[in-house]
Write a structure and sequence with these properties.
The protein is an alpha/beta fold. It has a six-stranded mixed beta sheet with strand order 11-16-15-14-12-13, with helices on both faces. Helix 18 (510-520) links the parallel strand 14 (485-491) and strand 15. The radius of gyration is 26 Å and the shape is globular. The two termini are 36 Å apart. Bound molecules: beta-D-glucopyranose. Beta-D-glucopyranose binds next to loops.
């Protein structure tokens, strides 16, 4: 058994408690000194501590990930630091510049060190699969390990604060930023949130030279952008907010995350940056969150464009009063807080509270003891290639296979066709700020290295991601004719997902579809190797291919990992963390949908007056949780342990999983529940556990899950968690629409 649920959670809770204790003790010993500092600070110095700017150094590609801003020159930023008017900088990893900036801060009147932050989203120098791809492993421990390595590499470059993990539940595949999170499911997002926080922050406390403060973002409901359009408002009732969008944040905070970032979007008409209910009432008073709230990039400034604030000064006032402690990129706090305090519009106590949080974080990170501690790492760690390959292999999902896969390494001529067949582009995926693009292994190189005769591989691009190439299709067809099998490397380019990359249709772009149709018409077996940052609605020759692999953006080891799976050195084990619908128009589409009053119980085409589209049933083409292996796995003998879960008791649910195939496999067994009748309409199914089991050919294993009342809770009409007695369906399943099913009853004791 590879991954546990309850046991793993116990470890997580233990680590989180240790981390919280370590942070509390650092903060406690530093507290008197922090209070003395605050008492001696001018309003300008306080505003400075509450300001973070994009690094003004040329030695960073980071400017590419944000809109143009006016960070000023490196000289100007150093002067600000020397004047004690800058709290933090982000997205640069240049030791000389770092030392210069930190020296300037330490030469300031109060010698408060600068905090160096960055977006380390899926690896630092070693680029791991994009977060959505890692979620496809259904293995949070893998994500913890890659986050740990990312932290080791980033801290060696002086970075102490990470703007990750993104924990936004994303159910509309049109939204481009789903690629940064863990997909559509609440339970899975919670597990990945806590694993990544633990990985970034490490187990030795934040003061450790290899610890990097984690920032679950974007608080909150950024993933619920209406119509999947980035920056759109979220139309989310508070009950749904609490049941779906908030739990991964809670999980991240419980794992010890010391910061969070406000979201760009509105909820019920109020942008997060001006939302005192969200950032103060709920986050502070109800949850007791002690960490730092940073704005998103110019998030306070955007209150003007939203129409919530009249002008810059008003925006700064609204943001600080709502609960945004630190302002990113806009300089609004720097420019306006002193005046707002002087006029009494912002109480000095509120500013002091925010400054206290910044200083406590700096103290917890050990910066007051040794501002250069992280930079003292004995050289850059070597690239973690083996882990990058393991993570990439684990992320690949086999959607369908008529037996064409795995391919033989010898004796077959392979035509590798498509815009993602080779070349250094589109391997690392969005939000690769610091990775070395030359390091990533393209697909053609990976295949060639594994083949007995490298000359048996022909490579033709055929078209670009979103444009035809003159003669491209003809060349591709010729290559397909001369080959025994075609590998079609198609999908989305790196720029088609990520921030501000919403799509109206989640399809393979038309020029690539034309290529796919022409190549398929040749009649050779076709293996589709998708590159994608979101769920796609597959159609035509792509949907009809003999095999389909979902390859996401796999990072540094793209080619090697895909070759490992394509040639059968490893059996694919990834599972879909997002449902693949049949058509784009089904978006937003997710598996744990609310039951309607008119479910299409019989799946007869043309059935009237049911919750279905004219053109398609509202079902997935490939459901959440789906993913084939090279084994042949069957589920059997569900045992619901007597079928009674007593109020404070536990219920063991088990099934047998057997590999009747000829290849070894890792099977990801999933536990789903469904509440038959409740005071709130419940989802069709909800994931409650995952177990990964290694199965040799012919082997079987009994997978067991332990359910308690806590697993059956939902947010009730009074906005409080509740579990209600009654009958539940339960499945142990290879996906969200299959599996062996039984029932049990939750009964009150006595
Ligand atoms: C993104 C954040 C990111 C920040 C800094 C913003 O545009 O929404 O996720 O951390 O930029 O790069």
């Amino acid at each position: 058994m590879l991954t546990m649920t309850a046991d793993r959670r116990a470890v997580l809770v233990g680590a989180a408690a240790a981390l919280a204790a370590a942070r509390a003790s650092v903060a406690q010993t530093a507290r008197p000194a922090i209070e003395r500092l605050i008492a001696s600070m001018t309003p300008e110095e306080k505003a400075g501590q509450l300001t973070i700017l994009p690094a003004a150094t040329q030695a960073t590609p980071a400017t590419a990930v944000n809109p143009a801003s006016t960070p000023g020159t490196a000289e100007e930023q150093a002067a600000l630091a020397r004047a004690g008017r800058l709290g933090a900088v982000f997205n640069a990893a240049d030791p000389a510049w770092h030392r210069r900036m930190q020296d300037a801060a330490l030469a300031s009147r109060l010698k408060i060190p600068l905090l160096f932050a960055a977006d380390v989203i899926h690896g630092f120098k070693t680029v791991f699969p994009v977060p959505l791809a890692e979620a496809a492993s259904f293995d949070p421990e893998l994500a913890r390990r890659t986050a740990r390595v990312a932290a080791e590499e980033a801290t060696a470059a002086g970075i102490a604060w990470n703007f990750a993990p993104m924990v936004d539940v994303a159910r509309d595949a049109r939204w481009g930023r789903g690629v940064e999170g863990a997909g559509e499911d609440v339970w899975l997002s919670e597990r990945f949130a806590e694993a990544r926080v633990r990985g970034f922050q490490g187990a030795r406390g934040l003061a450790d030279a290899q610890a990097m403060c984690a920032t679950p973002k974007h608080f909150a409901a950024y993933g619920a952008a209406t119509a999947g359009l980035d920056y759109n408002g979220a139309d989310v009732p508070e009950r749904v907010l609490r049941e779906v969008y908030l739990p991964p944040f809670r999980a991240g905070f419980r794992a010890g995350a010391a910061a969070t970032m406000a979201a760009f979007n509105t909820i019920d008409g109020v942008p997060a940056h001006g939302n005192a209910w969200l950032l103060t009432e709920l986050l502070r008073r109800e949850w007791g969150f002690q960490g730092l709230v940073v704005s998103d990039y110019t998030g306070d400034m955007e209150l003007i464009a939203h129409g919530l604030a009249r002008d810059e000064r008003d925006a700064a006032r609204l943001a600080i009063l709502a609960g945004v402690d630190m302002s990113m990129a806009s300089r609004f706090y720097l420019d306006h807080l002193p005046g707002l305090v002087a006029s009494g519009e912002v109480p000095v106590a509120r500013v002091d509270e925010a400054v206290r949080r910044v200083l406590e974080l700096k103290a917890a990170l050990g910066l007051f003891d040794d501002a250069f501690g992280r930079l003292r790492a004995p050289g850059e760690p070597p690239r973690a290639r083996a882990l990058a390959r393991e993570a990439a292999r684990g992320a690949i999902v086999l959607l369908k296979n008529d037996g064409v896969l795995p391919l033989s390494k010898a004796g077959r001529r392979i035509a590798l066709i498509g815009p993602f067949a080779g070349g250094p582009a589109d391997l690392n995926g969005p939000w690769t700020v610091f990775g070395d693009p030359g390091e990533a292994v393209p697909l053609d190189a990976g295949l060639r290295a594994a083949m007995a005769d490298a000359s048996a591989l022909s490579v033709v691009r055929g078209c670009a991601a979103e444009a035809a190439i003159p003669g491209g299709i003809a060349a591709a067809v010729a290559a397909a004719r001369a080959a025994d099998v075609v590998v079609l490397a198609i999908g989305e380019s790196e720029r088609m997902s990520g921030e501000a990359q919403s799509r109206t249709e989640i399809v393979v772009p038309a020029p690539q579809m034309a290529l796919a149709e022409a190549v398929a018409a040749v009649g050779k077996p076709v293996v589709v190797a998708l590159r994608n940052g979101r769920a796609l609605a597959l159609d035509g020759a792509v949907a009809r291919a003999n095999a389909i692999l979902v390859g996401w953006f796999l990072g540094a080891q793209t080619g090697t990992a895909l070759a490992d799976v394509i040639f059968g050195d490893v059996s694919p084990s990834g599972r879909l963390p997002v449902s693949f619908p049949q058509r784009s128009g089904q978006a937003p589409f997710w598996y744990s949908r609310e039951r309607t009053g008119r479910p299409p119980l019989t799946l007869k085409p043309g059935e009237e007056y049911k919750a279905r589209y004219r053109e398609a049933l509202h079902e997935a083409a490939y459901p959440f949780g789906h993913g084939l292996t090279y084994g042949d796995i069957v589920y059997d003998a569900l045992d619901t342990g007597g079928g009674r879960l007593v109020w404070d008791g536990r219920l063991e649910v088990a099934a047998t999983v057997r590999n009747r195939g000829r290849a070894a496999a890792v099977e990801t067994a999933q536990l789903y529940i469904h509440d038959r009748a409740a005071s709130i309409v419940r989802p069709i199914r909800e994931l409650k556990g995952v177990r990964r089991v290694a199965l040799a050919p012919g082997a079987s294993a009994r997978v067991t899950f332990m359910l308690t009342r806590a697993d059956l809770r939902f947010i009730g009409r009074d906005l409080k968690p509740v579990a209600e007695p009654g009958l539940f369906d339960v499945w142990i399943a290879p996906s969200a629409t299959t599996g062996v099913q039984g029932t049990f009853e939750l009964v009150r004791a006595g």
